[in-house]
Inverse folding.
């Protein structure tokens, strides 16, 4: 219960910071960067649910991101469909692609899964790149409309788009929170910890894995669609492997398999990239080793390290505790460690 | 018919390069069960080092290649010591991510030193020769011969020498190898050395007919993964066979199906194989 209240404090703080930011720092450039970071966070949350909680490292998510972006772009530009309908359809299309890929991909495990999804991602990229008549090939797709009005609310200004995408991010976090703290979430963690054991307990692993895969593709698609309408230009590059490596870096720095990880990691790395802009293409000189060092020393990222540190402090503070109480508390903290 | 023979020869050439890259990858997988995503970066570095040696110091092509093999091999050893050795007991997802980190670093590093431009490598073997009614440059013939020589040498090394047998023993059974007194860390280093060397040979041989640029390893490494899944992860003959199969399919597919989509063929092959057999075609561990 205490941890829930503490969580709630964090969440309220995050919402307040997000809402107040445009008033505190009315800077168009920062607003643009932060909105982009929110879009990446949504995609990273999608990846986190699959890689962090279920233990399947999917390298196809840049492809799903691109499917969402191109889905929205093509529907609005080529057929002139209403924006919101196109957004929903783009997410559904991505989920459908995810379902088809997942049905086959999830039969493989570990390395095979990583390599399989890497190839699927590459196929999606190649198709977008080569299918000139539909996607515009390397020239990309221009003139994607911004979100259309809902009643009196319009989304023409950067600030309104910022709040719109922030709302989508909050929606994503809410969904993730509900999933992770439900029986379904426990099921995913059980699959991550030992798939065979999970199956022995009577969990239908395939059904659960498929659900997670589709959900995670859905959020990658949502992020892609939002990206398309925010930047209003998309090229095949958004489906390239470098994007999935970026997403992985965000996730790992923040903490894989933690709820706060995607926010922390994305925010930190995006802020760092902006302040290291003179490095441009060479930023991987720093981020590459950072990724490797993190996985060796802090495999659960900043959020995980912070969590461990707090647990350690808590147990050190406890002076001469009742035996019974200690038992329950260690049980509680063990549970927390496992759940992230 | 002429086109067909020409394409078969092309397939053989591409296939030899793929086989060499896949061999390095499969050796490391057989020993350590790591899908080494950074292998493509080693391939790229191999080409750059040979190129630099030739341009900067005017060293002869073959000597430059030997230097490149040594340097990239040592880099492989360094990678094992610094990254994969500390991670040997970690969950498999960690190795993969660490390998991706190395890949990103090495690519940015190459871009920093050599720039993002596409470069060509000139060799003394640009002449055109006629062989059985088809035309090819000497370099292409050399790729084929070189690859076969390297494969034979590798085979002899693995089967006939003591060090080679330790690699095979460890691939068959890690604990067993430890029990009979094989130093597994040393074997791992040796394997990374071999693997890096093979990547450097493949890159130096193929660079004159392709271009040299920081992202040159991407497609090759992805295809090498397809090959080792095709041939069975960790299997040496499988990697060679798979390399040639992919080479032929690609060069014939490019001629008779579509040149634009020739890169997709490899990945479609993999998707189909894994859809039918989730553990690869020959899911036998070891050699």
């Amino acid at each position: 219960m205490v941890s829930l209240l503490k969580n709630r404090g964090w969440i309220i703080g995050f919402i307040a910071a997000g809402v107040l930011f445009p008033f505190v720092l009315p800077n168009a450039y920062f607003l643009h960067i932060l909105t982009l970071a929110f879009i990446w966070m949504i995609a990273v949350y999608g990846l986190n649910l699959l890689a962090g909680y279920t233990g399947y490292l999917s390298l196809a998510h840049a492809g799903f991101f691109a499917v969402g972006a191109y889905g929205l772009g093509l529907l609005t530009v080529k057929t002139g469909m209403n924006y919101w309908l196109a957004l929903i359809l783009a997410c559904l299309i991505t989920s459908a692609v995810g379902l088809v890929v997942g049905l086959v991909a999830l039969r493989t495990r570990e390395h095979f899964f990583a390599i399989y999804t890497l190839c699927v991602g590459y196929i999606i990229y190649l198709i977008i790149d080569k299918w000139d008549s539909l996607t515009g090939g390397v020239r990309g797709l221009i003139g994607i409309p911004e979100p259309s009005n809902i009643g009196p609310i319009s989304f023409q200004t950067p600030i309104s788009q910022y709040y719109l995408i922030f709302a989508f991010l909050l929606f994503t976090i809410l969904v993730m929170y509900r999933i992770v703290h439900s029986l379904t979430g426990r099921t995913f963690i059980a699959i991550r910890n030992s798939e065979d054991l999970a199956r022995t307990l009577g969990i239908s692993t395939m059904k659960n894995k498929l659900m997670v895969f589709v959900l995670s593709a859905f959020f990658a698609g949502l992020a892609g669609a939002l990206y398309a309408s925010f930047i209003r230009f998309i090229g095949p590059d958004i489906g390239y492997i470098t994007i999935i490596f970026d997403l992985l870096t965000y996730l790992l720095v923040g903490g894989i398999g933690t709820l706060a990880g995607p926010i922390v990691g994305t925010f930190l790395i995006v802020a760092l990239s902006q302040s290291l802009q003179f490095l441009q293409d060479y930023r991987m000189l720093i981020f590459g080793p950072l990724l490797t060092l993190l996985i060796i020393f802090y495999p659960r990222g900043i959020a995980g390290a912070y969590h461990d540190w707090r647990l350690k402090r808590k147990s050190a503070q406890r002076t001469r505790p009742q035996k019974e109480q200690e038992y329950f508390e260690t049980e509680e903290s063990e549970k927390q460690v496992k759940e992230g | 018919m002429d086109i067909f023979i020409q394409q078969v020869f092309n397939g053989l050439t591409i296939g030899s390069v793929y086989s060499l890259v896949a061999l390095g990858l499969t050796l490391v997988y057989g020993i350590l069960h790591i899908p080494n995503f950074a292998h493509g970066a080693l391939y790229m570095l191999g080409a750059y080092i040979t190129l630099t040696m030739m341009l900067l110091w005017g060293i002869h092509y073959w000597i430059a290649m030997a230097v490149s093999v040594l340097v990239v091999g040592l880099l492989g050893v360094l990678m094992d010591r610094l990254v994969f050795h500390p991670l040997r007991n970690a969950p498999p997802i960690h190795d993969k991510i660490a390998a991706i980190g190395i890949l990103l670093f090495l690519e940015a590093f190459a871009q920093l030193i050599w720039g993002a431009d596409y470069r060509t490598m000139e060799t003394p073997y640009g002449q055109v020769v006629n062989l059985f009614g088809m035309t090819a440059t000497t370099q292409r013939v050399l790729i084929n011969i070189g690859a076969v020589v390297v494969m034979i040498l590798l085979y002899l090394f693995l089967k006939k020498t003591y060090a080679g047998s330790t690699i095979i023993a460890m691939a068959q059974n890690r604990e067993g190898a430890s029990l009979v007194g094989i130093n597994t860390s040393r074997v791992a280093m040796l394997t990374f050395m071999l693997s890096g060397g093979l990547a450097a040979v493949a890159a130096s041989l193929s660079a004159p007919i392709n271009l040299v640029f920081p992202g040159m390893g991407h497609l090759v490494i992805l295809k090498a993964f397809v090959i080792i899944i095709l041939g069975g992860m960790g299997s040496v003959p499988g990697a060679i066979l798979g390399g040639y199969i992919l080479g032929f399919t690609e060069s014939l597919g490019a001629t008779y199906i579509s040149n634009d989509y020739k890169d997709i063929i490899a990945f479609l092959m993999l998707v189909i194989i894994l859809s039918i057999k989730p553990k690869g075609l020959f899911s036998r561990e070891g050699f």
Q: What stands out?
A: Chain A has 15 helices and two strands.
